[in-house]
Amino acid sequence: MKQLAAALLHLLTLTLLLLPSQASAVSIEATGQAPYVEEDPGLSRQQALQRAMEQASIRASAWLSGTRQARDGVLEIDTLRLSTLGKVSNVRVIDEQVRDDQISVTIIADVDIAQGCKDSLPQTAYRKSLAITHFPLENPADANNGQLHEIQQGLATLLAYELQRSSTFEALDAGNLNIIGDPTQAPVRLLPEGTLTTILNNTPQHQVQYLISGVIRGMAPHYTPGPREPNVLVDLYRQFDREQRFHQRDLVLDLFIHDAFTGALKHQQRYHMTADWNADSHAKVGFGTPQFWQQPFGQQLRSVIRAVSNDIQLQLTCEPFTARITRTRDKEVWISAGSLDGLKPGDRLSVYRRLTHYDGQMRPEYELINTEHNLTLTQTQPSFSKGTLDVDSETLNIQQDDIVIAH
């Protein structure tokens, strides 16, 4: 009896979430972390609190989109896909800790799922595909101390892992793929005729929705050892002389998010951290090794990676899901996304034609044209789906490499 009552209460709660005239807030527990700066503890706490609030909003979206209760078409929560990051209110701090130069704040907050993105129609739980690419060093010599050059590929692996923990993103580790031309100018590129652009070429070939890239602007230690023989006394002095900060190094990282269907730059952001680097200046520590993560610099880098992952999710969670058309036949259309991406029979997607224009140098530029027609899915496989149009595909001139969008 108690189980039945609990189930009915759960169902009633979910019903109220669907009614715009009723309260639609859920209580979410979340934790945010940030580097702890002794000189400004208030700012450190505020940053951790902000990230906890962002995580609460994301978790509310994931919780609701993952809830499945269908009742013969009356209550179809199974098809509900929240496309908003909710408004966070009534924040209560329940735990706060400072450990290893990092502050951690845990909160319980009310997330109003009726507020957020202006397009809150049912489709956010679809898994968007991202490729995390190479992060080149603007000055490769910055990585000589500790032999950390592998960070250029390793950041992609760590970011992909963080993003994979989200149920709405399929993050691919493409650390060996360098889409940055000149890192000193990125994301701006100088074209041969002298024109400046932030648009990437040939992005559709990567078969993902977004391309994540960036540049490591700096990773230099505050003290750079010169070409001398190791001196134990001098090295020990510099290691323990905290006032001179011989043992610290910086990380300055620029993040770029490009739309892979058009090559357009959607977002860019800079991250800056300073942390201790206590390893011997001649030691070959290597990026991602146990010795690296034991360093305060490595430990603080973890929080930066989490912050980058959170910001990517905040930028893209409200973006519509997009997939490529791979084949057409009469009214039938096949697309490059399936059940693993959250699609199921009955879903309706808007059909867009992708027109290719060429500039004076024969470089392609892409334009998306809404056909004002929908594709209704009839069959889904793990990696592809098939659906039908209300008119013949030839009438709309729909063909391979056109796209569908879930608005």
From TrEMBL:
<dbReference type="InterPro" id="IPR038165">
    <property type="entry name" value="FlgT_C_sf"/>
</dbReference>
<dbReference type="Pfam" id="PF16539">
    <property type="entry name" value="FlgT_M"/>
</dbReference>
<feature type="domain" description="Flagellar assembly protein T middle">
    <location>
        <begin position="123"/>
        <end position="286"/>
    </location>
</feature>
<dbReference type="Pfam" id="PF16538">
    <property type="entry name" value="FlgT_C"/>
</dbReference>
<keyword id="KW-0732">Signal</keyword>
<protein>
    <submittedName>
        <fullName>Flagellar assembly protein T, N-terminal domain</fullName>
    </submittedName>
</protein>
<feature type="domain" description="Flagellar assembly protein T N-terminal">
    <location>
        <begin position="28"/>
        <end position="111"/>
    </location>
</feature>
<dbReference type="InterPro" id="IPR032386">
    <property type="entry name" value="FlgT_M"/>
</dbReference>
<feature type="signal peptide">
    <location>
        <begin position="1"/>
        <end position="25"/>
    </location>
</feature>
<keyword id="KW-0282">Flagellum</keyword>
<dbReference type="InterPro" id="IPR032370">
    <property type="entry name" value="FlgT_N"/>
</dbReference>
<dbReference type="InterPro" id="IPR032388">
    <property type="entry name" value="FlgT_C"/>
</dbReference>
<dbReference type="Pfam" id="PF16548">
    <property type="entry name" value="FlgT_N"/>
</dbReference>
<keyword id="KW-0966">Cell projection</keyword>
<keyword id="KW-0969">Cilium</keyword>
<feature type="domain" description="Flagellar assembly protein T C-terminal">
    <location>
        <begin position="331"/>
        <end position="405"/>
    </location>
</feature>
<dbReference type="InterPro" id="IPR038180">
    <property type="entry name" value="FlgT_N_sf"/>
</dbReference>
